[in-house]
Amino acid sequence: MTRTTTRAAERSAAPPRPETRKGAAPDAPGAAAGRRSGRRETLAGYLFLTPWCIGILLLTLGPMLVSLYLAFTDYTLFDSPRWVGFKNFQEMFEDDRWWTSVEVTLKYVLIGTPLKLLAALGVALLLVKPRKGQGFYRSAFYAPSLIGASVSIGIVWRAIFNDDAIVDKSMSLFGWDVGGWIGDPDWALPTLITLTVWQFGAPMVIFLAGLKQVPRELYEAAEMDGAGAWRRFRSITLPMISPVLFFNLLLELIHSFQVFTSAVVLAGSGTNTGGPGDSLLVYGWYLYEQGFRNLRMGYAAAMAWMLMLGIGLVTAVLFKTQRGWVHYEEDAR
């Protein structure tokens, strides 16, 4: 009786427990502090993102929306924009030089991009195996990618392939008298493509990274089965580096569509045409000519949006077709 009375007294003296919902556990002592810490971290993350968001709005999205508006106007930089609807686009499709710029750019993209990727992959296959002086060779092959797009290299390239220059004189020794490549409409574009292929260093480095991820055991097993070098390359190397190949192809295509500086320098900045017979009239140059030489900013804005739509279409086709030739690790699981 005394023990029972003592326990009842202890229960009555104990502080009341906080009421909780049925089936719910009471909050841990540090739960509220953890939530406050999480909110502070989230706020800090948004603060760090603020400069990037401001840059996107003011330097990218804002100018894009302005150029979209100008594409439907007649604007000369000095007068107020005048709304003309789809007149710029209609005039564009009736412009023979616009079609010429499209043709020249497509030739540059369809010929230069595959050759550049082939050169990059070929050199990467040579450099992936350990050899003496490997670091020097990698740096030497990568260097043109850093300086190839500069104006100075374009001037040097023009001097090499101009009339009576070193290439012209060297070919004359073998009885091939072409004349200056830059001044010949048939050879001006191949000269520009050669300059592009020479800058294969960036995709080469990416190919090297992909080749190093291919397991050596696959090649050893293929050799034991009697597979030759070409069979190993076709059945092992290409499927294993297909994501890297897709990445390089996408980047190089987008970059090739925007070619400008090298074409202008090769043809000569003082001319009013795109090289001999408009053979170097790439899309970017004609856009610049219409916008800043002819002061037709509305027409140039319409051209820019057509270029963006074209690049977007090519990108969509690549992503749509990649399922048939790009193999990822999760697909094999």
What is the count of distinct domains? 1
Proportion of beta-strand residues: under 5%
- Identify the CATH class: Mainly Alpha
Q: Looking at CATH, which topology would you report?
A: MetI-like fold
Total helices: the number is: 15
> Fraction of residues in helices?
55-70%
Distance between the termini: 71 Å
Q: In which order are the strands of the major sheet placed? A: 1-2
**What is the ordering of alpha helices and beta strands?**
HHEEHHHHHHHHHHHHH
What does the average pLDDT come to?
84
Please state the CA-atom Rg, rounded to the nearest Å.
Answer: 32 Å
Segments where pLDDT lies below 50 for 5+ residues?
1-6, 18-25
Judging by the overall fold, what is the CATH architecture?
Orthogonal Bundle
What does the main sheet amount to?
2 strands, antiparallel
Q: Would you count the extended β strands for me?
A: 2
Rough shape?
A: flat
The CATH superfamily bears the name MetI-like
Biased composition (Low complexity): 1-14, 25-35
Protein name: Putative ABC-type sugar transport system, permease component
Region (Disordered): 1-36
Family: Belongs to the binding-protein-dependent transport system permease family.
